[in-house]
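Usage

Read records sequentially. Each one opens with the input sequence:
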Amino acid sequence: MVKLGGSLLGTPELQAWLDMLATQSDGRVVIVPGGGLFADAVREAQQTAGFDDDAAHHAALLAMDQYGLVLRALQPALATAASELEIAERSWQHRAIVWLPSRMVLADNNIPRNWEVTSDSLAAWLAAKIAADGLVLVKHPDEMDATLSVSQMMAAGLLDSAFDQFASSLGCVVRVIGKQGHNAFSAKLISGPLPARAW
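and closes with the structure output:
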């Protein structure tokens, strides 16, 4: 599973990630979209209008959906999926999958409806739900310090404050890498084979 941060929007690296995943993942990778400027607009609207976190949470999930649709528009070979069944169907079709999270997340009342839970935590939530074999979080910095612990990345603002709660139930490796990590990830796909489950 690969989470593509919203801050990558407009960068050449984002297109490189999308093109690589569309041509090489063979249905084995689910892409989790960040919120990016769409989620930023929700934050700004909440500050201006003063609506509650429950409404902001719903709107922020729709922001992730919007970013996911943009990813699909940037690389038409990608397929979108909004449920576990659709994820499985797209995988069987050997297509790279962009997750549209709002429907699944809103159906789970155990997920806190506030700004502590962002697309990072939701990527970990989905990875656990579909038993993914790995989770890669792609961030905007060119290089990431691989020696940082999850708590250190949370303290530095690289991961949201709820991430460790969601990642604790994962039975797979979690990696945080910079936006230029697509070549290294591509090499892993090519050298495979990856396990059949969505990564």
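Summary fields computed downstream for this record:
- The chain has one domain: 2-191.
- The CA atoms of residues 7 and 66 lie 14 Å apart.
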